[in-house]
Design goal:
33% of the residues are buried. Helix 17 (379-390) packs across helix 18. It contains 19 helices and seven strands. A seven-stranded mixed beta sheet has the order 2-1-4-5-6-3-7, covered by helices on one side. The radius of gyration is 27 Å and the shape is globular. Helix content is 51%, strand content 9%. The longest helix is centred in the N-terminal third of the chain and has 22 residues, at 37-58. The model has no long low-confidence stretch (mean pLDDT 84). The protein has helices at 2-6, 18-31, 37-58, 64-75, 79-87, 94-109, 114-120, 124-128, 143-157, 162-176, 179-183, 216-230, 248-259, 277-284, 307-313, 354-366, 379-390, 400-415, 419-432; strands at residues 186-190, 197-200, 238-242, 264-268, 290-295, 325-331, 370-374.
Length: 434
């Protein structure tokens, strides 16, 4: 195995291959008599543990070794795979080198651990290659990623040679993309400066726009803009503003789920990270995806200056904003930046023309081409939301009169009129159900 991996060319340095290299090194050092049997077993079990962790995270099943190798190929961000992501496999000399690598991966894919297990008196690889995971009532793993990797693994299992593998893998790249952007739908920034990392969010909420009761015009506007964006037409940055708990953030999450299969990806960024926006955009502008940079609960106090970074990115700098990037933000404030009565006067003792400064701050909202208002529902609308949410739970069928009476009490006691309050009320009722 060690010598096979050493012959890789295009796929020599790829992300996620630590387990493969670890297993190969363990076997090689044992064959070279640099480690005895007990040391080799201990080192192999470390790699097996890592493989089981990966399988649990993504819901891999059956042959975990083959699933892991399919995962490596899906994650491989090489110049070749990135080209396939945008244009598919093209004719070129590099294809010969890639097929050489796939011939090696095919040998690894069907690697026989029988002799090794017999010599070391272990059976861990026999278990891993015929694995039955525990059924999960609630799926905590990243099912979307797992499903794609399983699709690739199953196709590779049916391959007959390196040529077959070449067609399968390059077709996968063209269909789904490459690496973390190809496999995951949402990300957040971790780390400081230009060394930040885009960390996949593997437990995104599975919510659809139909789950949001009411706000039909708001949802329609959001869908139309996003649909134009993913189809490569002109689209606008969007600000969703209004009362707390009305579904602004939920609408953004739903949009991601609605258009994920069309190549939409989302990156969540916080206010203290705005100085990293330009670097972030430079990293994603040439990828074959449509990115929404998502800012939740956006607002600024008058002493905060992070809004300047945001203004510079949204149609404010010399560089044109890439066509594959939009900014969607939610806020409880229409104008995003806190304003006082004194701000409206040019007679401030600290500044000769205070209103000019406020106009600069208030111009931020004008950079969002579309603003959508999510106002709090009235009493009738609140009751419709309660009934709509309750309809999803069979155990609440036929209890509409009781629910509305108690919902009104819930709202008067401080829950307020909002979709969030309605959802919290239903959870309260379900918690009391025996």
């Amino acid at each position: 195995m060690y010598h096979r991996i050493a012959r890789l060319i295009v796929y020599k340095e790829i992300a996620g291959a630590e387990i493969l290299n670890g297993v190969a090194s363990c076997i090689h050092e044992y064959e070279e008599k640099r480690k005895d049997k007990s040391q080799t077993i201990e080192a192999l079990y470390v790699q097996v543990h890592k493989l089981l962790d990966l399988a649990t995270a993504y819901g891999f099943d059956e042959n975990l070794w083959q699933a892991y190798l399919a995962y490596i190929l899906a994650m491989a961000e090489t110049p070749f795979s990135l080209l396939c992501e945008k244009n598919g496999a093209a004719d070129g000399s590099v294809n010969t080198l890639v097929k050489n690598d796939f011939a090696i991966f095919r040998e690894l894919f069907f690697y026989d651990f029988t002799e090794l297990e017999k010599e070391l008196e272990i059976n861990c690889f026999s278990i891993l290659t015929d694995y039955r995971s525990i059924p999960k009532k609630v799926q905590h793993f990243n099912k979307s990623v797992g499903d794609k990797v399983m699709e690739l693994r199953n196709a590779l299992m049916r391959s007959e040679d390196a040529e077959d593998m070449f067609e399968i893998v390059t077709g996968f790249y063209k269909k789904y993309g490459v690496g973390q952007f190809g496999l995951n739908k949402a990300f957040r920034l971790t780390g400081e400066g230009e060394d930040f990392v885009l960390q996949p969010i593997t437990n995104t909420e599975i919510v659809r726009l139909d789950d949001i009761i009411g706000y039909e015009l708001q949802k329609k506007t959001l869908v139309e803009n996003t649909k134009a964006f993913v189809e490569g037409r002109k689209a606008n940055n969007v600000l969703l503003y209004g009362d707390s708990g009305t579904g602004k953030s939920t609408s953004i999450k739903a949009i991601l789920n609605e258009f994920y299969d069309d190549g939409l990806r989302m990156i969540e960024i916080y206010k203290h990270q705005f100085h990293q926006l330009s670097t972030l955009i430079s990293k994603i502008k040439n990828r074959n995806y449509r990115f929404i940079i998502y800012m939740d609960d956006l607002s600024f106090e008058e002493f905060e200056i992070e809004y300047k970074y945001l203004k510079a990115v949204i149609e404010g700098g010399l560089e044109i904003r890439p066509e594959n990037i939009l900014i969607y933000a939610t806020s409880n404030r229409r104008h995003l930046i806190r304003e006082t009565w004194s701000d409206r006067s040019d007679l401030s003792k600290d500044e000769l023309h205070r209103s000019d400064t406020m106009q600069e701050k208030l111009s931020l909202v004008a950079r969002f081409g579309i603003t959508i208002n999510y106002s709090a529902p009235d009493k009738r609308e609140f009751e419709q939301i309660v009934k709509g949410i309750a309809a999803k739970y069979p155990e609440l069928a036929g209890k509409e009169e009781m629910l509305l009476a108690q919902a009104n009490i819930w709202e008067l006691r401080g829950g307020g009129l909002s979709g969030r309050s309605a959802q919290q009320f239903i959870h309260y009722i379900l918690g009391k159900e025996e």
